[in-house]
# Entry
Amino acid sequence: MSVLNQFTAGNFKSVALASLLIGSVGLTSCLEDNNIPEIPDAGYISIYDGATGSPGVIIYADSNRVNDFPLNYTQVLPYKNFFPGDRTFKFSETNSLSSILEKKFTIKVDSVYSMFMIKDDLAVDAILVDDDWEEPVPSEAQVRLVNISYDAGAVSVVIEGQDTPLFQGTKFKENTDFAKISKKIYDLYVLSDESKDTLVKAMGVQMNGNRVYTLVLRGIKGSNEQEKKLDLQLLTNYINY
# Structure
């Protein structure tokens, strides 16, 4: 049975904008409306460490340090604001001046993304995924699949008792769109599209309304090591409070 670990990014708009406004809250009472500091343009990114065997990383956007503490394998940083344009992201091991990966991404104004640090058989890489969901409602959840397991091949996700897969044909480094599902508890199966074998079982997965989720397929199919085995993880992208 698979274990699903859930991390809450929360309402990215509230968190990100609050961080920008916190320095000016105490000043607004003594400023005229037209003198209130303007919030700078930004894009918003959460960052997930899905590089199997990662020792924990410190991340830089250009020369700006993103996280105070190492981001470890299977952990996620909540959404943060980043200046728009071309940004070079550097991933370094703790207390190391050298980087294990440097990669440039283009960030658009008012756009929302998830970044996934990944690893194939040898190399570390990162992908940036658009987080494009609809405003969730109390009766439904929205969920997508991101496949960052390099040796799992193309996969499908099937819900127990349903004939039509929830997701199908998702390859390494690919992601699906967000799908709407009723709020309830689900038994999920990840199947190989090639062999039709069940790769991962996830039983009793709670999908709540007013939520946006990401299912992450991570790890190595051929590994017997507990910390590297193929597994499914549930991340919470957004909660509509």
